[in-house]
Amino acid sequence: MMPSVDELRRDLLVSGVQAPVWHLGRTDSLELGNAVIAIGAFDGVHRGHLELLQRTQADARARRAHAYAVTFDPDPDVVVSPHPARHLMSVADRLRALAASGVDGVIVVPFTRELAALDHEQFFCDVLQPVCTIRAIHVGSDFRLGARGASDVAVMSAWGIERGINVYGHDLVLDGDAPVSATRIRSLIDAGALEQAAAELGRRYLVRGRITTGRGQGSALGFPTANVSFDTSLQLPAAGVYAGFACVEGTVWPAAINVGLPPTFEDRLGSAALEANLIGFTGDIYGDRIDLVFEERLRPSFKFDDVQDLIATVQRDIAHVREQYGCEGVRVS
Predict the structure, then answer these.
(1) Residue 228 dihedral angles phi and psi, to the nearest 5°
(2) Are 123 and 130 in contact (CB under 8 A)?
(3) What is the pLDDT of residue 73?
(4) Which of 81, 134, 172, 189 is the most exposed, having the fewest neighbouring CB atoms within 10 Å of its CB?
(5) How far is CA 89 from CA 41, 230, 279, 300, in A?
(6) β-strands 240-248, 289-300: how paired?
(7) Torsion 312-197-9-2 (CA) sign
(8) Domain 5-175 matches domain 205-331 at the CATH topology level
């Protein structure tokens, strides 16, 4: 059956409560008061991040201070790594998820090579202290800051002790015997293990895009698909066919989603690396935004020698999704 409206809104990052987001350098002056801060790239805003943010909020309440998430735009990996990892969410979605996490605000620091060259003392004193009075800092136990990652929790704690600032390095949240991390979640998604990835994210995996014209093959074969253009810096699941949900114009529909160039048509002009059959939907949505939520992998991709075999297999995929999730749209916004 279809997930509840609340679940779908969670998965699509639709929230009625959003804390303010401040981009340093875009505002002339900020005076954010006494602050307990959590620092991180926060890619995915996963269960581990949410636990860290909850601890930050609890500490802030005890100190009668504000709880702020401090993050970076772009992700530091994009600036310092010659081969940056694919992301679990766009910057806009990351900020949206952080703003909905319960913190009092999100401070966004522009990440540049100049910022990457600062040590922890320069970062705290020159970048953050001018906009807030830091009372405590919360990070993961493996967090590192400053030029070449030289400042770990021990180094920052020593700096904090001299200034009456508590620095806490929290143990990572575990899923079984493995720590929840963006790296691990990327690996799970890359392997097509969407259910396990969702358990660590705390929601189903989401990819946003825009519907573009494709090769037109689907309509001719009896199962029209929406070809999706997307940010190629995002992590896609392993090539294959998935059951999931597609949101267009504020309504969510069950969907059979194909990831990867279809092997049978990979040499055809207009073949898309991401396409979806929206079950129960009719209408013209070319050019519209589409948000895809992944539920489960149905099968890997493979090349069909016979078009009739392809048609029968795709029809079975669609029938499975229809049987499991129906063909009715659910309004979420």
Answers:
(1) -115, 120
(2) no
(3) 96
(4) 81
(5) 11, 11, 25, 24
(6) antiparallel
(7) positive
(8) no
pLDDT at 265: 55
Strand, coil or helix: 331: strand
Helical ranges in 81-181 per DSSP H: 91-99, 113-116, 120-122, 153-161
Architecture of the domain whose range is 205-331: Beta Barrel (2.40)
The token duo for 168 is: 């806490």
SS3 state at 262 = coil
The pTM assigned to this predicted structure is: 0.93
Beta-carbon contacts of 133 under 8 Å, excluding residues fewer than 6 positions away, are: 33, 34, 35
Classified as helix, coil or strand, 24 is strand
Q: Please identify which residue in the block is written with the tokens 């929406």.
A: 226
- Residue 192 amino acid letter: G
Question: Which two three-digit tokens encode residue 201?
Answer: 């994210």
pLDDT score recorded for residue 203 = 98
Is the distance from CB of 121 to CB of 159 less than 8 angstroms? Answer: yes
Q: Which residue has the tokens 């790239």?
A: 41
Distances (CA, A) of 20 to 31, 55, 59: 13, 20, 20
SS3 168: strand
- For each successive 10 residues of the chain (333 residues), what is the average pLDDT? 96 92 86 97 98 98 98 94 95 98 98 94 95 97 87 95 97 94 97 97 98 63 81 95 97 96 55 86 92 96 80 91 96 93
Domain ranges in the chain? 5-175, 205-331
* Residue 167 near residue 139, CB atoms below 8 Å: yes
Q: What does the angle CA 292 – CA 101 – CA 197 come to, to the nearest 5 degrees?
A: 45
Residue 94 pLDDT: 98
Query: For residue 149, how many other CB atoms are within 10 A of its CB?
Result: 12
Q: So what CATH class is 5-175?
A: alpha beta
HSE-up of 262 (CA within 13 Å, CB side)?
25
> Contact 179/262 with Cβ under 8 angstroms?
no
Total residues belonging to the chain = 333
Distance, CA of 110 to CA of 124 (rounded, Å):
14
